[in-house]
UniProtKB/TrEMBL annotation:
Residues 116-180, 196-269 form the Phosphoadenosine phosphosulphate reductase domain. Residues 62-83 are annotated as: Disordered. It comes from Drosophila yakuba (Fruit fly). Pathway: Cofactor biosynthesis; FAD biosynthesis; FAD from FMN: step 1/1. Keywords: ATP-binding, FAD, Flavoprotein, FMN, Nucleotide-binding, Nucleotidyltransferase, Transferase. This is FAD synthase. GO terms for molecular function: ATP binding; FMN adenylyltransferase activity. The gene is Dyak\GE16191. Residues 62-75 have a biased composition (Basic and acidic residues). It is an enzyme of class 2 (transferase). One of its GO terms (biological process) is FAD biosynthetic process. Its EC number is 2.7.7.2. It catalyses: FMN + ATP + H(+) = FAD + diphosphate. InterPro entries: PAPS_reduct_dom (IPR002500), Rossmann-like_a/b/a_fold (IPR014729).
């Protein structure tokens, strides 16, 4: 995939000074940021432009039956089928999907497609949002490149996340708008560079910290750039997200296979301790001569994210802020 810098007036690539940060009381928009990143680097805007075609899905990983990128298909992990979903589970996810599609349709009655952008951080929730939105656009005969993807890059981000974002850009054929800094800084500079944008899709759920009182459509706080925050996944649960991913064979970041359940930066995220494998789950042999037990598995290994039973422990792998 080739990269090029946008040279039009509203996507001019340039370094910006870092905004001064002031201490304010926590607010809904300030706290409910879904894995945003803060770095000392300057803010920049880049664009990864792909061929403007209608949305194509990965082979054997979505509703479509073909792709022109078999190399990427091999690069994405083979998705296991660990969940035997009940008919009730499937019906519930179909209802969730229908409500999301209705939300997208309502949004397009209020905003033009050129006024929209979606925030993507490579996490499971945003991955579901991306897949839902692209499927809806395809149904409406709207190009996937018409609604850009906003990604906030950090020097402390996981390489797996950065790589997954690139694959999503390539495979869903979206336009990437990239900044460095905090979410507020990114939206501030994006508003200056892309003044046509009036609303942003976000993958927040009401079980996320400080998000329990969010509305599906909610304006940003007064000290933020003025735009509408669109939250189509508010009522989705942790297990809804994984049910959708497995039902639709949606590719996801490989970190979730290794016990991560909520992904921030490398400095504040570890595998969820509730998914750590125990010796009882390993294949063990007992030496009858000295009664020593030898286990062949790695006791520090972790089960995949979807095996977390208690959804309230989703963020147990997040380290407290210093």
């Amino acid at each position: 995939m080739s990269y090029w810098r946008v040279t039009s007036s509203f996507l001019l690539a340039r370094a910006r000074p870092r905004l001064l940060q002031t201490l304010r009381p926590p607010s809904t928009m300030n706290e409910c940021r879904k894995n945003t990143n803060i770095t000392a680097n300057n803010n920049t805007i880049l664009c990864d432009k792909t061929i403007s075609k209608k949305h194509l899905f990965l082979e054997k990983r979505s509703m479509s039956s073909h792709t022109d990128d078999t190399k990427d298909s091999k690069a994405t992990q083979d998705l296991p089928n660990p969940l035997e979903l009940t008919p009730q589970d499937r019906l519930a996810i179909e209802e969730r999907q229908n409500k999301a599609f209705a939300f997208f349709a309502e949004t397009l009655q209020i905003y033009g497609v050129e006024e929209l952008i979606f925030c993507f951080n490579g996490g499971k929730d945003c991955t579901v949002l991306l897949d839902l939105l692209m499927r809806f656009l395809r149904q409406q005969n709207i190009s996937s490149g018409d609604i850009p993807m906003l990604y906030i890059k950090s020097g402390d981000s996981f390489a797996e996340i950065d790589d997954f974002v690139k694959r999503c850009v390539r495979n869903y054929r979206v336009e990437l708008v990239q900044y460095e800094g905090s979410l507020k800084e990114a939206l501030t500079h994006m508003s200056a560079d892309m003044p046509r944008i009036r609303a942003v899709f976000v993958g927040s759920r009401n079980t996320d910290p400080y998000c329990q009182h969010l509305a599906p459509m909610q304006p940003t706080d007064n000290d933020w750039p003025p735009m509408m925050r669109l939250n189509p996944l508010l009522e989705w649960s942790y297990h809804d997200v994984w049910h959708y991913i497995h039902m639709n064979s949606v590719p996801y970041c490989s970190l979730y296979d290794r016990g991560y359940t909520s992904i921030g930066n490398r400095s504040n995220t570890i595998p969820n301790p509730h998914l750590r494998r125990t010796d009882a789950q390993c294949a063990c042999d007992t030496d009858t001569a000295n009664t020593d037990t030898v286990c062949s598995c790695d006791p520090s290994g972790y089960r995949p994210a979807w095996e977390l039973q208690d959804a309230t422990m989703e963020r147990a792998g997040r380290l407290p802020r210093k």
